[in-house]
Amino acid sequence: MLTMRTSMLLIAAALAALAQKMPRTSWGDPDLQGIWNNSTITELERPKELSGKQVLADDEVAALEEKAAQNRVDRAPRAGDPGTYNQFWFDRGTKAVPTKRTSLIIDPPDGKLPSLTAAGQKRQEERFKRLGPTATGSSGNGPFDSYEDISVVTRCITRGLPNAMFPGGYNNNYQILQAPGLVVLLSEMMHDARVIPLDGRPHVSQNVRQWMGDSRGHWEGNTLVVDVTNFPDRDVTGFGVAYRFGETSHLHLIERFTRIDANTINYEVTVDDPTTFTKQWTASIPMVKSDAPLYEYACHEGNYSMANMLSASRAQDSQ
Q1: What count of other Cβ atoms lies within 10 Å of the Cβ of residue 140?
Q2: CA neighbours within 13 Å on the CB side: how many for 13?
Q3: Residue of 185, 187, 147, 166 lying closest to 297 (CA atoms)
Q4: Is 124 helix (H, G, I), strand (E, B) or coil?
Q5: Within 10 Å of residue 282's Cβ, how many Cβ atoms?
Q6: What is the C-alpha to C-alpha distance for residues 144 and 241, in angstroms, rounded to an integer?
Q7: pTM of the model
Q8: CB 239 within 8 A of CB 159
Q9: How far apart are CA 215 and CA 203, in angstroms?
Q10: Interval 5-35: pLDDT, tens
Q11: DSSP secondary structure string for all residues of 30-78
């Protein structure tokens, strides 16, 4: 019978052997380079009907994937509705996460976002009051008095963090490049590029606030750990982020990129914003190697949609 110490030594040896098999750069760092895709039908938060269930059985996964496929069928828009993209343009994925989890959130264990603080609740109420009671993320009727009433997501400026690392309706592709002392992470959606120093330099001054924050990385074994601070405060137009609440200057992220095999990186992000959430929360999202090229994301060519939305709002005003 194996002792606890022997078992731990065997596990350590197995992990060490696995680490030796992981690809390395020519200068010895774990190699994360390539194009990766994180499309999945697994939702950020656990659906109400799966409350209390962390993992699906094989038949439940198959049923979930079949349901997702059935829902992705083009249907004619309602009378008077100009419609939107057809299914050709979407790339939401067809599979649940390989772990069969019922949510991308792994902490808290219930798979739900923590409760809002009083300040976070107030910002949400102000946002809904301004954009309309149906406002979630970048949707909502809004006043559309000027381009400043429209979120920076709708304006195609940036999705911000952590939203830029969450899967969406399309363009769920990322390119990672490495050089000695640096990692560059490019998101296809809105072509956000982060240059992440690994040389131990401190964060920039607290007086400097950036759309994507300020990233500093280091290696912990085979895991790239990225500390992100220096976010700006957002007004109620916000980012329209997946978790519904714009960043504040108190937001702090810890990201972890771990290549677990030749074709998979496990991405984890811990979100800490004491002015928004009552406690931290963590999401885990697999990134799968892709042989497809990364295309340019040209969102607002000539800003036509901005002009059209504002002119349509003026037409409504005149009525």
Answers
A1: 18
A2: 6
A3: 187
A4: helix
A5: 16
A6: 19
A7: 0.86
A8: yes
A9: 8
A10: 665 565 555 555 555 578 999 999 999 999 9
A11: B---EEEE---SS-SSPPGGGTT--B--HHHHHHHHHHHHHH----PPP
